[in-house]
Amino acid sequence: MLLQREPRLRELRVFDLHLGPWLEELQTGPVQVTAIQGDVTQAHEVTAAVAGAHVVIHTAGLVDVFGRASSETIHEVNVQGTQNVIEACVQTGTQFLVYTSSMEVVGPNIKGHPFYRGNEDTPYEAAHRHPYPRSKALAEQLVLEANGRKVHGGLPLVTCALRPTGIYGEGHQIMRDIYYQGQRLGGRLFRAIPASVEHGRVYVGNVAWMHVLVARELQQQAALLGGQVYFCYDSSPYKSYEDFNMEILGPCGLRLVGARPLLPYWLLMFLALLNALLQWLLRPLLLYAPLLNPYTLAMANTTFTVSTNKAQRHFGYEPLFSWEDSRNRTIRWVRAMDGSAP
Ligand SMILES: NC(=O)c1ccc[n+]([C@@H]2O[C@H](COP(=O)([O-])OP(=O)(O)OC[C@H]3O[C@@H](n4cnc5c(N)ncnc54)[C@H](O)[C@@H]3O)[C@@H](O)[C@H]2O)c1
Ligand SMILES: CC(C)CCC[C@@H](C)[C@H]1CC[C@H]2[C@@H]3[C@H](O)C=C4C[C@@H](O)CC[C@]4(C)[C@H]3CC[C@]12C
Q: For the chain, which domains are there?
């Protein structure tokens, strides 16, 4: 998105633990693309990568709600990693920092309170127990508190945080897993969540576009944007997690069975708890990390949707991709995987 839409871009540095072959394709154009294999938990590696950069978009993170990583590792990558990025900006004199936060900084909370089409100012009791949302909330707080700190050279650091809801689009691993699961079940998925539970979704291309726009405008309107948070939104429809997935997976040949959940909620919760117990018991032998656990069930079963125009008001954001484009692009990606099920 930066290469396509930011005419003033002179160099793009991509810093990641894992560098993919896709990066090579980006290295053939007129803008210098520098791939740096590194770890955000290593302060010296981050500082070396940030030195001389004008803007940092900090999107690296350990996204784990399935119990694959320990809570210490999640904290180290998401919180200490973010602290390292802030310190790198301060030490090297980089003045602009955009942080990819998450809706989970707000909720759903442990009490399962619905957040129905709320905005950045909607009161909500943000209480978390799970390591991933806790880490994102702490990291976001660090970023916002760093706004105004003096960087090397004496100028103030300008920061802001973007909070995507559930991102979908090309490369969405969970969508891919659910697609393969449906194929294994003879083209069927079984409804587990009531259709009335709304779950916020946003297309990856629009999330990227928001990052590019805010990075640009942070420099022009530091006083307005500095220290602010913005939900990421677009025209993707308000639906339950499963009904939304069917907008993509339906045209790819899957069918969602049942107008209402086939299993009662208490039974699903029992299975989720059983999965958590099995994960704990099997941990010394193998990693058991199914999609269903008490946290993912609570996420999918609690309404959390946003309705806001703050990004439009503050930095002129309009989605780059319509719902039809976003859907078609994702469908095309799923169809291209056909026949490659593991
Ligand atoms: N996927 C979603 O629905 C969603 C929603 C809201 C926010 N987010 C946030 O968006 C960001 C990107 O998430 P994603 O879904 O694309 O996940 P992802 O796992 O695809 O991307 C995260 C990237 O961070 C890199 N990374 C992980 N640990 C690292 C480390 N120690 N050092 C350097 N790089 C490291 C990974 O290699 C990966 O490329 C994350 O900060 C996440 O919290 C994601
Ligand atoms: C209960 C089962 C039938 C379905 C399980 C679905 C579950 C794996 C899904 C539901 C909601 C998903 C999360 C949601 O879209 C938002 C985010 C925020 C982001 O920061 C990281 C990803 C995450 C947690 C999604 C993970 C997968 C979830 C829990």
A: 38-332 (3.40.50.720)
Residue nearest to atom 27 of ligand 2 (CA): 296
Report residue 28 as tokens.
Answer: 């053939």
- In whole angstroms, give the CA distance from residue 30 to residue 271: 53
CB 93 within 8 A of CB 156: no
The Cβ of residue 299 has, within 10 Å, a number of other Cβ atoms equal to 21
- The catalytic residue among 99, 116, 124, 132 is 132
- Residues 199-230: pLDDT tens digits? 999 999 999 999 999 999 999 999 999 999 99
Q: What's the token pair of residue 306?
A: 């946003």
- Please tell me the distance from the alpha carbon of residue 236 to that of residue 307, in angstroms, as a whole number: 11
Amino acid letter, residue 131: P
ipTM (interface predicted TM) = 0.97
- Hey, what amino acid is at 313? R
Taking the centre of ligand 1 as the mean of its atom positions, its distance from the CA of residue 63, in whole angstroms, is 6
Does residue 142 have its Cβ closer than 6 Å to ligand 1?
A: no
Whole-model pTM: value is 0.96
